[in-house]
Design goal:
Helices cover 42% and strands 7% of the residues. By secondary structure, it is mostly helical. The longest helix is centred in the last third of the chain and has 18 residues.
């Protein structure tokens, strides 16, 4: 017999959402299985349907994600502040 789970129950096993500030909102997403080579390979091969895993596959996904955030901010007239870490 298979027990059904809610979306919240499934996500609770895989995703951690942490809100650190109440006057600004930003998202820190931590998916434990993607922190390991086998998990990353599984994501690209099984989930994304690629023939092999490569870090080169991450760039287009990241670029598209950032573009969608910028588009949303512009459309909704929301100030977008980009933080860049220091190198020193």
């Amino acid at each position: 017999m298979t027990m059904r789970k809610t979306a919240a129950e499934v996500l609770a096993e895989h995703v951690i959402l942490q809100v650190e500030c109440i006057d600004r909102m930003y998202l820190n997403l931590y998916v434990p299985k993607l922190q390991y080579p086998a998990g990353s390979a599984h994501f690209f091969i099984r989930h994304r349907g690629q023939r092999f895993a490569s870090s080169a596959l991450m760039y287009p996904m990241s670029k598209k994600f950032v573009a969608s955030i910028e588009s949303f901010a512009q459309r909704e007239a929301i100030e977008l502040v980009t933080c860049v870490g220091s190198s020193g």
